[in-house]
Amino acid sequence: MLKLRVKFKKYSLIRYISHLDLMRLFQRAFRRANIPVEYSKGFNPQPKFSFATALALGLTSDGEYMDIELQEEIAPEKFTKDMNDVLPEGVEILEAHYTDDKKSLMSIIKSSSYIIELIPLENSSKKSIYETINNFKRKKEIYITKSKKKKGRTIEREVDIRKNIYELDIILYESDRIILKTLLKTGSTGNLKPELLIKALIKEGLQVDDVDFNIHRLDLFTEDPKWE
């Protein structure tokens, strides 16, 4: 089996298309670039490719990954060029290489790093922002309310997210913006969305806008980092 592991970035207005539409976009790009993708058998054959993890609507990223099964070998450099020639602005293949890894991408991903840009409220101060973040990091347990729909009902439950936060630091403070860098648990064994981290920070007293913020994923990692 020829498996090509591909890294790509997602930016600009493409951030607002869904994960399902992103899959359709790549299917069309494979055809337009004449990539010899392997197809599933059966009545409705589908191209064999899979993403490491879905990126939430509205987020940009420099570190998305997918595996593609091919019918015949092509040079990774040719794959990268041919795909970038047909992909729209907002999606770009960064690199590709062949892999013998039998495991799925989703099963080996352990964490994600993010840059989060927040807007401080008018009555906040630099001192209070730093104190809130430092107090937050010293906590042994941090509970948030998660909700999901099941059989037409919304079910809520309290979840401790502290062990899913590996790193959290302020890398820039200005009067009109705060930049955080964080490393969060990601993958099939557990996952913490950065939106929930923001929700938890505000719950703990961080004085920032709870609607207007930007999140950018830097990369995905297969290591299991230590809890800070």
TrEMBL record:
Q: Cite the InterPro entries for this sequence.
A: DUF2344
Domain DUF2344: residue ranges? 3-194
> From what superkingdom does this record's organism come?
Bacteria
Q: Cite a single Pfam family from the UniProt record.
A: DUF2344
Q: Spell out the NCBIfam families in the cross-references.
A: sam_1_link_chp (TIGR03936)
The entry's protein name is DUF2344 domain-containing protein
Taxonomy of the source species = Bacteria, Bacillati, Bacillota, Clostridia, Eubacteriales
